[in-house]
Write the structure tokens for this entry.
Amino acid sequence: MEHMRAKLIVAALVLIGAVAYLAVAGAKKGWVYYLDVDQYLQQKSYQTQRVRLCGRVAVDDLHVERQAFRASFVLLGPTQRIGVDYKGVVPDLFTSDADVVLEGKLGNDGRFKADVLMTKCASKYQAEEHAKRLEDPQ
Amino acid sequence: MTASLGDMALTASVLIAAGAFLAAISAGRFDSDRWMKLSRTLVVLFAIIVTLACAVLIDLLLKSDFRTTYVAGYTERALPWPYKLAAFWAGQEGSLLLWTWLIAIMSAVAVFQQRKNRLAQSAGTTATLAGVSLFFAALMLYAANPFAQSAQTPPDGHGLNPLLQDPAMIAHPPMLFVGYAGFTVPFAILVGALVARRKDTAYLLPLRKWVLVSWLFLSIGIVLGAQWAYIELGWGGYWAWDPVENASLLPWLTATALLHSIIVQQQRNTFKGWNAALIACTFLLCIFGTYLTRSGVIQSVHAFPESLVGKFFLAFLIVCVVASVVILFVRRDMLVGENKIESLLSKEGLFLATNALLVLMTAVTLVGTIFPLISGPFAHEPVSVGPPFYNHVVVPMAMILLAMMATGPLLVFGPGAAGKLGRMAVVPGLVALIALAVAIVLGLHDAWSLACVAIVTFAVCSIFVDLGRVVINKWRLEGPGLIGHVIMTLDANHRRYGGQLVHVGMLMVMVGIAGSSLFGQTHQLSLTPGQPVKVGRYEITLSKLEEIREGHFTAVQASVMLQPPSGDPIAMRPQVRFYDKSEQSNTEVALRWTLREDVYLTLAGWDANGTSAGIQAMVNPLVSWIWIGAGVLTLGALFGLLPRMFPEPRAAAGIALPITAPGNALPKCTSQ
């Protein structure tokens, strides 16, 4: 019985070790900083790697060419802003003033090159805003 | 019916649930049948009163009572009535009411089902169910009241989010909630058994049925959610490892582990503590997932706005975790198994390994999901680990799980399983090798997909080998008659063969996932009318771009001809819709599915004068096998739940028993 217990413990340790190894390797591969524009521009080290950037799309300077699969716009952080070129299908909910999440890297021209663009949405789209509009029609 | 009636029903429900809870505690404390009866009656009354609240909300939704904020927020006059009904669970308040209602109904059923148990056991079960009911009732009343009124009545409602106007989306949330609510019952049954110090395994039979039913609904819910994402969101995928998706996967994984390990406890009276922990974890993960997605602590693409609901769930989660730990600790003497595992290479050893893998998958998914919260010590800013993390960690684990699933039918309980495995694996092994060779000759070289081919072939074969063995035995003993023997064999052990069918479904799902994620193609095309473009084996041509009007939306529609390698061209019409009540546009994907691959077209945009269109064309191999597999899985689970249909012929049973089941106490489980 003791023999069996030892076997079980060894098997468990091997399994956990293997998974931990996989997890660390996977985390290194999938490691993405989730930043706003200000944080991104502050740290030079972020600008050499692939990051996830969130912010609001500025109302001015917005060029969307859906049929050519590209959009360029300015992303706003709490105080700073950055130019963005996105390549891919432009989502339906993408408009000026939308909250978006981007993934990509800084290009040589100083603009952020994104290949993932997600709009924050769905269940959030909602009642609250509607209620606000009811209270304050303007 | 008016909103104030709904409000009153909610208030009453809080009092009734509190009453039921206190009565159940008193019943246990004073060993009183009277209190027990009162508690049971109150649980039933709770179900009735919550049903009334639901009826009120349905009535308000159908008659478009826009005074009620919830109705105005999620419906409009022009909305077709089935969608008005579905708006019941389109928002936070309504979906919580649905969950509460499901808990109420299931509690009433469970309390009735468990009424013959010892008093202490019933009291423990009922108190748990009433406690959970009390939390949900209070949550509705204080943090998410669907009957809240606005100061003035708006002329029309806000309308239902166009993304939610889809049949899969109508069915997805209720299925998920049946699963979530259902996992409360096994937890309550466990608490009852622990409180009453039950040492036998009788309580496990209804417990496993509740787990199986809840697991089935949760599975259907997850698949419908994936299908909705695939059809409605337009990015061509069905799973993105988003926190909201992970939240539903976590309890599914632990429940899957549980379904296997309960069998071992039933057969060998071991794994007791492990199972108890899994039952508690499954329940707690449902609450935890809801807290995660409704509190705004994790950035998700589709998280709910921050609200009091999150704080309620956090408080409830803490209470439940503490209560679970305390009760498992106090009753730790009951959780020691009576038998030890004798061999790792046996059915119980395999079940243990399956469990270990599933629990590790749960842990990895959990860590990945909450990574932004726990990455503090390693980084200054929040870090998230995207799909590459899961693909590198969970996918290899799933592959090993698949391989274990393949050997499952060939192993028996107890020692000596290894030798039998060697003999029985010959045929499936050979067939798998042949399949592997064929796949390589046909040009498949990717290591993952080759592993998948070999494992799936082996798995399907071993199921047939196992079934064949029993049928041949029967043939020898009872004379010829193939179909009759097959039916009798299947009918004699619903759990076993239902489980096998679930495995076949799971294999199909894995084939679909592997095929579409390894071999999918995406093309971004600028099309001008009349100019054909090659996409994989297909040729697509834009014939025209037009504006159409339908129901409560206007749409820009591209008419595209898809020419398959052989046969007639097929007309496809991807659209971008503009719903009257929505400020945003909404893409409507055009999909042509076959068993081999899906062609998936999204209209991304067009130029102002309508002379060219941007279309994203995707070829997604084998995706339909995911949906077919989910169907097979459902059938398997249903078969597993059915009782035996044909009685066992007596004479035959008398002969068969000693041969196929030496020393097994349960004749029904002969072939285990």
